[in-house]
Structures are given as C-alpha cells and as structure tokens.
From TrEMBL:
Source domain of life: Bacteria
GO terms assigned for molecular function: DNA binding
Alphabetical UniProt keywords: DNA-binding, Transcription, Transcription regulation
DNA-binding region boundaries: 34-53
Protein name: AcrR family transcriptional regulator
Protein species of origin: Kribbella shirazensis
Domain HTH tetR-type: 11-71
Any one Pfam family match given in the protein's UniProt record, by short name: TetR_C_13
Length: 198
C-alpha cells in the first residue's frame, strides 16, 4: 500500500514572495507597510507569512539583505571591478541614476527611504538602515584613501570629505528620483558631482 503524504505543501514560492515583500516595503516604507499589505501583495494568509518569515521585522531584515544582494549590489560591483576610486564612484553614480528610476520597481533606494519618519517603536529599523548607509560611506572613504596611499591621488586628498560628498549626492539622487526626477536629470547630477573631483 502506498504511503499517504501528510501535510500541505507551501502554496507559494518563498523567493518570489520575498521579492514581492521587498517591492512592497520599497514602495511604502517600513512603518506604512502593514501585515495586511504584505499578505495581500504576497497572496498568502497571515499564518503562512509568519511560518515562512517570522514577524514583520524579521521579514524586513531579510528584505534588506536581498536588496543589498540584488537591486543595491551595483555599488559593491563597481568598487570591486573598477581600477580606481574615481572610476568606481563615477560608475556608482551613473548606475544609481539608472536603478533609482527603473520603472520595474519603486523609485529611489530602499536603504535610504524605507525608514524615513519612523515611529519610536521602529527606532531599531531606522538605526539599522542608518548603520548601513554609514558603512557604505566608509567603504567609499577607504577606497579613496587606498588610492591616496598608492599615489594615484594627491597626498592632501581629503578622503573622508569626498566620501561624505558622494554619499550625500547618492542620497539626494534617491530623493530626487522619488520626487519624479528623470534618469537624464540624475545622469546630469552624476556628471556635475564628478566634476568637483579633478
């Protein structure tokens, strides 16, 4: 006699559901996204969501990791593949202009915009995203300083100031994209920002 299979298989693809959750948080932000919003966008019930991902905060943590590995990975790729800090940062700015205005998803950057105006109960979420943004700025600083140390940039180059300037530019590009700036608008910002680095 054949063995009867017990239990019900998951009625959704976990990776596809995680991507949909990412898009939902990206569009609305952490606080404005409710569990109902998530279950509706994923097409599953709350028990299935909790079974697959835990609570809303744990799901958001997974979303952030997925974003860094997918939509936001252009920064790490540029830093790894370009021969100089200037080339890497120029590529980051141009790819940000493209990614932040891609019609396939929400505009701007999830890491920059998802925890704006959070309530006190969400302070840890805001802190985590702030930490990621600071780490991204520090990576730029370290790459610029490495070029200084290698003699590719003048000894008096202020790596920290340049990194802060470009991090600020990238954050501003994200907000401009959310406000409706076009890809061409942001490409012009990228070109102008690079012109300060002669």
């Amino acid at each position: 006699m054949a063995e009867t299979r017990r239990g019900r298989p998951r009625s959704f693809d976990r990776e596809a559901a995680l991507e949909q959750a990412l898009l939902t948080f990206w569009e609305h932000g952490y606080d404005a996204t409710s569990v109902t919003d998530l279950t509706t966008s994923l097409g599953i019930g709350a028990p299935s969501l909790y079974a697959a991902f835990g609570d809303k905060r744990k799901l958001f943590d997974e979303v952030v990791r997925r974003y860094q590995d997918t939509h936001g990975a252009f920064t790490a790729r540029a830093l790894a593949e370009e021969p100089t800090a200037r080339a890497a940062i120029g590529r980051i700015l141009r790819e940000a202009a493209t990614e932040y205005t891609d019609p396939e998803h929400a505009r701007g950057c999830l890491i920059i915009s998802a925890a704006q105006n959070t309530i006190p109960a969400s302070a840890e979420v805001a802190d985590r995203l702030r930490t990621i943004r600071r780490a991204n700025r520090d990576v730029l600083r370290d790459r610029i300083q490495a070029d200084v140390d290698a003699g590719l940039l003048p000894d008096d180059t202020d790596a920290a100031a340049l990194a802060t300037f470009f991090a600020t530019t990238i954050q501003g590009m994200s907000q401009q994209a959310r406000d409706g700036a076009s890809r061409a608008d942001l490409m012009a910002v990228a070109t102008t920002a690079l012109s300060v680095w002669r």
